[in-house]
Each structure stands twice: as C-alpha cells, then as structure tokens.
Design goal:
This protein is mainly alpha-helical and about 180 residues long. It contains nine helices and no strands. The protein is elongated and about 70 Å long.
Amino acid sequence: MMDNTAVVTKEQIIAELQQLAQEQGRVPRRSMYNHFEKARQLFGSWPDALRAAGLENEQKRFYKEDYLIAEVKRISEQLGRPPISGPHEFPLYMSVMEYYDSWEAFLEQAGLTKFAKEEEGKEVKEKLILDILEMERIMRRFPTMSEFADYRLVRYYFGSWKNFKVACEEKRQEVS
C-alpha cells in the first residue's frame, strides 16, 4: 500500500511561497498557506521561511486586484451567490476597500451584482418560500430572519427580508 502523504521539502516550500507571493501580489499569510506548520518546523519560524524565500522585505499589505477578483468569483461559485460585504464571508474584504469606494463597485468590476436580477433563480426563490412556509406551519408563526438559515440567500434573491415576506404572502394566497 502506497503512502499518500507527500514529503514536503524546504525547496518545495520556498517555491510555493514565491509562487503564492507572485499570484497574490503580497507576502502569503500563514492562514493562506497549506504547509504552514511544516514550513515552521523546517525553517524554525514563519518569518524564517519567508526570509528563505526572499520575501521578508516584500510588501505585506496589498493583494493584487486580479487576485481579489479571482477570489470573489471563486467564493461566489462556492456560495451560489456573491459574498456579502465584510470579512465574515470575504476574508480579504479590507484589501478590497483599499482599491474600491464600495463593495458594490468591487462586485461590478468582478462582473457580479449585490442582488439577483428579477428573473434569476426562480427555483431557488420558490424553494426558499416553500421552506419558510413549512417552518411557519410548524412554528405557528412566521420565522424571524435570524431563525432562517438561508437568510443570506433571501437577501440576494429578494433584496430584503420585507420583499421576501411579501412574496411569501402572495404564495400563501395562491395556495389557499
């Protein structure tokens, strides 16, 4: 049986750190590097690993704009919608604010929008409405936003909780 754990060498770590710095336009953060613990072991410390890769005097603050855009697109794909502004859904949020006046301007540059278009996601909207109406049936009252796990999807597809409640009321009348 073959061992699938790859051996990570100093040379490999140096090459990976240099490549990450090139892609991101900044010194990689330990949290963004998969072999951080191994780098610390082999070089004695994280700063020593960066020094070995020739990155100790590099710009530590800014990510490249292209990298930020690629990252927001990747996260959007994972979430099924653009991330909401702030570090909770987009860890590099503060870096974005160094380039853009607003989250909306950044999303626009990435070809994304803060809210779905009217005709977008009909099946998703329908499922959200049916899910909350089922919760309402069980709870015997309309759930609050914080009780509804998919409230971020609601915000994206309906624009607001109020608009969502209106759509639910319309569906309720349609069904009865």
